[in-house]
Design a protein that fits this description.
7 helices, disordered N terminus
């Protein structure tokens, strides 16, 4: 970083044309003469090679001297259709003296710890990084393969077949090969005993499926954090503490307590190895350890001391510029399924390393391994291997002129959620401080209406590393009214894209900012879904928008417009207050809109109903599982943590047996289940998580039919957490029973989720505003006939001004008469061409000509859009049936429609 004294000196910048450009400093104002191109470095979109290439470069940006980030789109063929997926590649110039690659290991550089890739990068100062080696998610968090940092072996390769590793020598030469560990110790009496590895947890060897530590001798260094060396080694150990090649302590038949001291190592011996230790080593005697790696493919040895870095991986993917045969089975890593992927490779001349991630998120569907092979060869990879993928796949990079790394793209875990992993591959800059090369505007590239944001000028030097630009004074402006300059910050005023520009003397730079409108949202959720309908009720309300790109953001209070139905109310400083309730009203609605996108809070006398707290359970609770090998228990026990003073339903599971999708059920009241309140709109449940990444669900019985509800797509937390589940689209009705709470471990990506663990449930409540909300619904029968302007309502014929019609294969009915006779209301907004339908606990926004509808704050796409005839809105008949809870019967012969509720 450049300090302020340095910033006051006259420096020089070398332009792309080789001219020396003076930077003149005067009273904190910097001019760059002539004006440089100060925006982020990016290449125009275009094909990487020929126009027919399935690979399209979307853009690139410099990370630091010797490393750049390139964004790609890759077209693949699946079932006869072209699918475009996204990939990010960090391209590293291995000949650049200012760049290096290194392994990142857990927390504090120690195995048996886990950390997010972003956390490891921040801790070690990496400017970019990805997750690296595979690890047992149910184990201690140890890389399966070899890892070397600056000549020091952190872990040795496991005795597994077909597992390749990526290394870069201290001279900058990359290699990808399969290695075995070759080592031994020599006692003072001259005898030797083979070493089985360094810093390894217990595992089954291949191909014999033996226990890794039986009759084996391992070294554990201070890079091993856990006091268990390792857990579940299956045999009784003898341990030896060695420091400066001298035996300090021998512990026959027992582990030495505590962690390995810094600068020392522990020999852990089992069986025949333990016998050797007690026969040939003594305290005070010298012992030497020697080891190396040996190539399985060539038989040559590789000295770890000569390697700058090494990370382990899985199968070989590319060899000699072509897709290679897989070197081990890929079924356990979902090789034939499109998932998020991480890979690494290098060019034919060995000068370039490629660090690759294939995105799986809302914008991309991931890659099969065969597709990843095709992509890698298309961008110039000569030899490459697969790193850990799926939920582990994470790439981070430091944007130009910034000081912190951030996610390059959303993860497959959902948005910005990152898995804690055992190791990563980091990119590091070792460049000296350079002179100022350019400036950029730093700040959020997207805002919600009403948000205020401060933007800063940031600088980068000749090595593309950040420099202090705080002394530069600039004036700011916006290109249009979507953003308004307040004198200190920009405020988002209306949807659209604006360019903000900073000018300092004759230098200027700009960036585009998108002010998001309702069209950019996928959902809008209030922090509270139901409240008591009582004068004086007051509650803090926050509203969160989920964007189409998967990210979530809190909506500024001033960006929301509120509408109150059935009561008078106000929202001030985020607090909703019921001022008075209209006479005779039993259900009220508070509707919040962001740029027309709506969500709703239902107010009723009922509110939430407590359903089960497990304090006095009088019905049976039992464990069931699938497949037959699934084991576990389900029982009511005393709680822990925040629930230590109450009883909870605990579900313990062991899904290690069997194959395919696996299920662990806590079955409630035998096969019958327990009745829940009628017409619930939401469910609240406390769940004790175990970070297993398994799928948590609930199964309801509705008149003999199972209805499944997601509690959490991934149990990615430890400890108690309250979950609120929207039930409005579940169709539970008035006679639902909760049968089972359960976990699912899917076969696809099963290696990424825990097969054993324990979760618990407590304090189950249901919101039931529709019980009282039925006051604004009616039970009746309405018969309409296509083409006729009369309807029968409750047995009476009534003239109407628009008839149902059939258009294509779709039957349309006038929504106004539906809500008139079944209860509810429909309101038309001519400016937005939107009709809002409100019935019971359901709020629907429909827009003419649009197949997007908003149901209780969630965007949903339907097959056909509403239409208008004679100033009346007609909606698809299926929408009435599915969303408004009205039964529909179609009589083909008479073309009559019977609606019943």
């Amino acid at each position: 970083m450049m300090d302020r004294n340095q910033a006051k000196r006259v420096g020089f910048v070398v332009s792309s044309r080789g001219k020396r450009l003076a930077i003149i400093t005067l009273a904190g104002l910097i001019w760059i003469q002539p004006v440089l191109s100060l925006g982020p470095l990016s290449a125009p979109s275009g094909s990487v090679y020929a126009a027919a290439s399935p690979v399209v470069k979307l853009g690139e940006e410099m990370i630091t001297s010797g490393a750049k980030l390139i964004h790609y789109q890759y077209a693949v063929n699946r079932s006869g259709s072209t699918v475009k997926v996204l990939a990010d590649v960090i391209q590293v110039d291995l000949t650049n003296p200012y760049i290096k690659l290194d392994v990142m290991t857990g927390k504090g550089g120690q195995v048996t710890t886990r950390q997010s890739v972003q956390g490891m990068a921040k801790e070690t100062g990496a400017v970019a990084g990805v997750n690296a080696d595979f690890f047992n998610v149910n184990g201690q968090g140890v890389p399966m393969g070899a890892s070397v940092s600056d000549g020091t072996m952190i872990t040795s390769p496991s005795d597994l077949q077909g597992m390749y590793a990526f290394a870069v020598s201290k001279s900058g030469t990359p290699t990808i090969d399969e290695y075995t560990f070759d080592g031994s110790i020599r006692a003072q009496d001259g005898t030797t005993f083979p070493l089985a590895g360094i810093n390894k947890e217990a595992y089954r060897t291949e191909p014999d499926k033996g226990y890794s530590h039986v009759n084996a001798l391992y070294i554990y260094t201070s890079a091993w954090k856990s006091p268990d060396r390792p857990k579940d080694s299956s045999t009784t150990p003898t341990e030896v503490l060695v420091q400066n090649n001298v035996v300090q302590q021998i512990s026959p038949g027992a582990a030495i307590p505590g962690e390995v001291p810094e600068g020392a190592y522990i020999l852990r011996a089992h069986g025949t190895a333990a016998t050797y230790i007690t026969s040939h080593l003594a305290v005070g005697q010298r012992v030497d350890a020697n080891y190396q790696l040996r190539s399985v493919t060539t038989g040559n040895t590789l000295d770890p001391n000569a390697q700058a870095m090494m990370v382990g991986g899985h199968t070989l993917l590319v060899s000699n510029g072509k897709a290679s045969s897989f070197t081990r089975s890929t079924s356990s890593i979902s090789g034939s399924s499109p998932v998020a992927r991480t890979a690494v490779g290098y060019s034919k001349d060995g000068h370039t390393a490629y660090i690759i991630t294939a995105q799986k998120n809302d914008n991309s569907s991931g890659m099969k391994l065969s597709e990843l092979q095709g992509f890698m060869t298309s961008i110039g990879v000569w030899k490459g291997l697969d790193l850990d993928g799926g939920g582990s796949t994470t790439m981070v990079n430091r944007p130009l002129a910034e000081t912190e790394v951030g996610l390059t793209s959303d993860t497959s875990n959902g948005g910005t959620t990152q898995r804690l992993v055992a190791s990563g591959l980091g990119v590091y800059s070792e460049a000296p401080q350079g002179t100022l090369k350019g400036l950029k505007v730093s700040g959020s590239s997207s805002l919600l209406i009403g948000q205020e944001a401060t933007y800063k000028l940031k600088g980068y030097d000749t090595y593309y590393n950040p420099v202090d630009a705080s002394g530069i004074q600039a004036s700011w402006k916006s290109s249009n009214g979507s953003l308004v300059w307040t004198g200190q910050s920009f405020k988002a005023a209306k949807p659209g894209t604006a360019e903000i520009t900073a000018v300092s003397g004759s230098a200027k730079t700009s960036m585009k900012v998108n002010v998001l409108g309702g069209a950019d949202l996928s959902s809008l959720t209030a922090s509270t879904q139901s409240l008591p309908l009582t004068a004086g009720t007051s509650s803090n309300i926050s509203v969160t928008a989920q964007l189409k790109n998967g990210s979530s953001v809190k909506v500024p209070a001033e960006a929301l417009k509120w509408e109150f139905i059935g009561f008078s109310g106000s929202v001030k400083d985020g607090t909703l207050t019921v001022q008075s309730v209209k006479p005779g009203v039993q259900t009220g609605y508070a509707i919040a809109r962001y740029d027309g996108f709506s969500t709703m809070i239902v107010l009723s006398q009922a509110g939430q109903q407590a359903w089960e707290n497990f304090e006095n359970v009088s019905y049976p609770v039992a464990f069931t599982g699938l497949p037959a090998e699934a084991k576990g228990t389900a029982q009511v026990v005393q709680g822990t943590g925040d629930h230590a003073s109450s009883k909870v339903l605990q579900l313990n599971y062991d899904l290690t047996g069997g194959t395919g999708n696996k299920y662990a059920y806590a079955q409630i009241n035998g096969t019958t289940g327990k009745s829940v309140p009628a017409n619930p709109t939401s469910m609240s449940i406390d769940v004790l998580g175990d970070s297993s990444l398994n799928w948590a669900r609930a199964e309801f019985d509705v008149n003999g039919k199972s209805v499944y509800v997601d509690l959490a797509r991934q149990v990615d937390w430890t400890g108690w957490k309250n979950l609120n589940i929207d039930l409005t689209s579940s169709g539970l009705g008035s006679s639902a029973k909760l049968k089972r709470l359960y976990l699912v471990n899917l076969a696809d990506g099963q290696d990424e989720r825990a097969l054993t663990g324990s979760v618990a449930f407590d304090n189950i409540q249901f919101s039931v505003p529709s019980l009282v909300g039925s006051a604004n619904t009616k039970s009746t029968t309405v018969v309409m006939t296509v083409g006729q302007k009369t309807i029968s309502a409750g047995g009476k014929k009534i003239a109407v001004d628009v008839a149902p019609i059939v258009k294509g294969d779709v039957t349309y009915v006038p929504i106004r008469y539906v809500v008139d006779y079944f209860g509810g209301q429909a309101n038309w907004d001519g400016a937005s061409q939107r009709i809002t339908v409100l019935r019971g606990g359901t709020l629907i926004d429909l827009t003419l000509g649009s197949k997007d509808i908003i149901i209780n704050g969630k965007r949903k796409q339907v097959e056909v859009s509403p239409i208008m005839i004679n100033n009346r809105t007609l909606v698809p008949l299926r929408l009435v049936s599915e969303q408004l809870g009205i039964a529909v019967k179609w009589e083909q012969k008479t073309k009559s429609i019977t609606l019943q509720s």
